[in-house]
Design goal:
- It is globular, with a radius of gyration of 23 Å.
- The chain contains no helices and ten strands.
- The strands form three sheets. Strands 4, 5, 8, 9 and 10 form a five-stranded antiparallel sheet that branches. The protein has a three-stranded antiparallel sheet with strand order 1-2-7, with no helix packed on it.
- A hairpin with a 6-residue loop joins β9 and β10.
- The chain is 0% helix and 62% strand.
């Protein structure tokens, strides 16, 4: 039987929080038990906003048979929406191969000058995260995500 490699990706950065215009220095360590090839290796800096709200839904009394004991049917329903505010991709390496001894890369990506701040409230949550992505042809990408707060 043939099984794919077991891959472990570690992503580490130089400090805990960043400001607009700062450079994020990242270290990517890839360890594997079996040699494998990839199409690309990239670093992504992503800012997402998650919005969640409650909606009161009222149902018509005429939509089904209702006895006199039943009142108007109401229910609170949660709705949500996620959208990306920033998505920066830094291409690190094209086609390559990771051997049994692994792969270590140091790289950097800059936080944009007009970057929105991290924010959390009852309805809106804006967050930043860094992703190391190993893109493989005809296979699922190997992704390591690291969430940090940006001041």
């Amino acid at each position: 039987m043939i099984f794919g490699p077991k891959v472990k990706v570690d992503l580490d950065i130089d400090k805990e929080s960043y400001f607009p215009g700062d450079e994020i220095k990242a270290r990517i360590q890839v360890d594997t038990n079996k040699r494998f090839s990839f199409n690309e290796l990239r670093l992504e800096l992503v800012c997402e906003s998650f919005m969640k709200w409650e909606v009161k839904r009222e149902f018509s009394l005429y939509s089904r048979s209702v006895t006199e004991e039943e009142e108007d049917l109401e229910e609170m329903v949660s709705e949500s929406f996620i959208f990306r505010l920033v998505e920066l991709k830094r291409f690190i390496m094209g086609k390559g191969e990771v051997t049994d001894s692994g792969l270590f890369i140091e790289t950097s990506i800059e936080v944009p000058e007009d970057a929105p701040p991290t924010y959390k409230s009852g309805m809106i949550n804006t967050r930043w995260f860094l992703k190391a992505v190993i893109g493989r042809r005809m296979r699922r990408d190997i992704v390591r995500k690291l969430e940090r707060r940006r001041s």
